[in-house]
C-alpha cells in the first residue's frame, strides 16, 4: 500500500479587489466599523509559492521598497499559515514566497490576497483538506477582506465586510488603476473619517448611518452596464483619503478628462480606480495617463478568488 503523496511545491494565485461601493457606518466597541460594500476581484494578482519545510519562513519579491512588507509574524500570509497549522494540528512548516503585484497599502487588499493564497496553498501542501466553510472561517479570523480574496468574483460584504453574499454580475468591467508610490494606512483613514464626521456634527453615539448597498449598484452589475455603474459608484473613505492625500484629486480629474466614465478611490486608497466603457477605451485612458507621467494599469473584473495554479 502506498502513502498518499503530497506536493512539495504549491503555487496559488489570488486577486486584488476594488470596492465598487463602500458605505461606512458607526464604529463598534471592537474598533471595527460597520460596512456595506460591494467588492469586485480584478486581474491584478498576488502569487504565493509554498514549499515544504520543517520551519516557517517568508520572502517577498516584486516590491520597490522591501521595508514596506514585514517577513515575520506581522505578515498576514505568515499568520495564515500558522493559523492553519494550529487549527489542524499540523506540526511541520512552510517556506512562503510572495510575488506581489497588488500595490502595498494601496487599498486593494494585497495582504488579504496573500493570506487567502497562503491558506489555500498550505492546505494543499500539507494535505489538511479543509472544507470551503472551514477555510472561510479561518480567513475571517485573519482579516475582514480575506474571505473575499478566497471567493473572488463580485460580492456584497456586510458586518466588517466579511459576511459575503455573491452579487450577480454580467460580462466584464474594464478598469484603469493608478497606484501611488506611497501607501496609506487603513486604520489612519478610518480614524480620519471619524474625526471628519465628528467635526461635521455626527456624535459618537449617533445610530449607525443607514447601511445598505443601493439597489441601482446591484442592478448595474447585474445588467453589466458600465454607464449605470459609473453613475452610482461611491466610497465613504474617499473624503478622508483626499484629505490625507489632496493630490489624488488631480489623478481623478486626469482620468475623467481622458474619458473614464467614473473614478473612485479604491478602499482606503490611495489607488484610484477608473471605470471605462470598453477594453479599447480603457487602453486609451491608460495611454493618456501614462503619457501624463502617471503609472496606469488596465485590469478587468470580475475574476475568480484564490486558486491553485500548479501543485
Ligand atoms: P487593507 O486590506 O487593510 O485595506 P491594503 O490593501 O491597503 O490594506 P496591504 O498591502 O494589504 O494594504 O497592507 C497593509 C499593511 O499591512 C502594509 O503596510 C504592511 O505593513 C502590512 N502587511 C502585512 N502582511 C502583508 C502582506 N502580505 N503584503 C503587504 N503588506 C502586508
UniProtKB/TrEMBL annotation:
GHMP kinase N-terminal domain residues: 75-153
Keyword Aminoacyl-tRNA synthetase found: no
Keywords linked to the UniProt accession: ATP-binding, Isoprene biosynthesis, Kinase, Nucleotide-binding, Transferase
Reaction equation(s) it catalyzes: 4-CDP-2-C-methyl-D-erythritol + ATP = 4-CDP-2-C-methyl-D-erythritol 2-phosphate + ADP + H(+)
Residues holding ATP: 103-113
Keyword ATP-binding carried by entry: yes
GHMP kinase C-terminal domain segment(s): 218-293
EC number: 2.7.1.148
Pathway stated in the Swiss-Prot or TrEMBL entry: Isoprenoid biosynthesis; isopentenyl diphosphate biosynthesis via DXP pathway; isopentenyl diphosphate from 1-deoxy-D-xylulose 5-phosphate: step 3/6
Signal peptide span: none
Active-site residues, as the UniProt record annotates them: 17, 145
Pfam family, one: GHMP_kinases_C
MF terms (GO), sorted A to Z: 4-(cytidine 5'-diphospho)-2-C-methyl-D-erythritol kinase activity
InterPro entries found in the cross-reference section: GHMP_kinase_C_dom, GHMP_kinase_C_sf, GHMP_kinase_N_dom, IspE, Ribosomal_Su5_D2-typ_SF, Ribsml_uS5_D2-typ_fold_subgr
HAMAP family (alphabetical): IspE (MF_00061)
Similarity-based family: Belongs to the GHMP kinase family. IspE subfamily.
Function per UniProt: Catalyzes the phosphorylation of the position 2 hydroxy group of 4-diphosphocytidyl-2C-methyl-D-erythritol.
Protein name listed in UniProt: 4-diphosphocytidyl-2-C-methyl-D-erythritol kinase
Species of origin: Microbacterium murale
Amino acid at each position: 500500500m502506498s502513502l498518499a503523496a503530497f506536493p512539495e511545491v504549491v503555487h496559488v494565485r489570488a486577486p486584488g479587489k476594488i470596492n465598487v461601493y463602500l458605505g461606512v457606518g458607526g464604529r463598534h466597541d471592537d474598533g471595527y466599523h460597520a460596512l456595506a460594500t460591494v467588492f469586485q476581484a480584478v486581474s491584478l494578482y498576488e502569487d504565493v509559492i509554498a514549499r515544504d519545510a520543517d520551519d516557517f519562513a517568508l520572502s517577498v519579491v516584486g516590491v520597490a521598497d522591501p521595508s514596506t512588507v514585514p517577513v515575520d509574524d506581522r505578515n498576514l500570509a505568515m499568520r495564515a499559515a500558522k493559523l492553519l497549522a494550529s487549527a489542524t494540528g499540523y506540526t511541520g512548516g512552510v517556506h512562503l514566497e510572495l510575488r506581489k503585484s497588488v500595490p502595498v497599502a494601496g487599498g486593494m487588499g494585497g495582504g488579504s490576497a496573500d493570506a487567502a493564497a497562503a491558506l489555500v496553498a498550505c492546505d494543499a501542501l500539507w494535505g489538511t483538506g479543509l472544507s470551503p466553510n472551514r477555510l472561510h472561517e479561518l480567513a475571517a479570523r485573519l482579516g475582514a477582506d480575506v474571505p473575499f480574496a478566497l471567493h473572488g468574483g463580485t460580492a456584497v460584504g456586510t458586518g466588517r465586510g466579511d459576511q459575503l453574499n455573491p452579487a450577480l454580475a454580467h460580462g466584464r468591467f474594464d478598469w484603469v488603476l493608478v497606484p501611488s508610490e506611497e501607501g496609506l494606512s487603513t486604520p489612519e483613514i478610518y480614524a480620519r473619517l471619524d474625526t471628519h464626521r465628528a467635526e461635521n456634527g455626527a456624535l459618537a453615539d449617533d445610530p449607525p448611518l443607514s447601511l445598505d448597498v443601493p439597489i441601482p449598484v446591484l442592478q448595474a452589475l447585474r445588467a453589466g452596464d458600465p454607464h449605470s455603474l459609473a453613475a452610482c459608484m461611491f466610497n465613504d473613505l474617499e473624503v478622508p483619503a483626499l484629505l490625507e492625500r489632496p493630490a489624488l484629486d488631480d489623478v481623478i480629474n486626469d482620468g475623467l478628462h481622458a474619458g473614464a466614465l467614473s473614478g473612485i478611490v479604491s478602499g482606503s486608497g490611495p489607488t484610484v480606480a477608473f471605470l471605462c466603457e470598453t477594453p479599447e477605451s480603457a487602453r486609451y485612458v491608460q495611454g493618456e495617463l501614462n503619457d501624463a507621467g502617471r503609472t496606469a494599469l488596465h485590469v478587468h473584473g470580475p475574476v475568480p478568488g484564490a486558486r491553485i495554479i500548479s501543485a
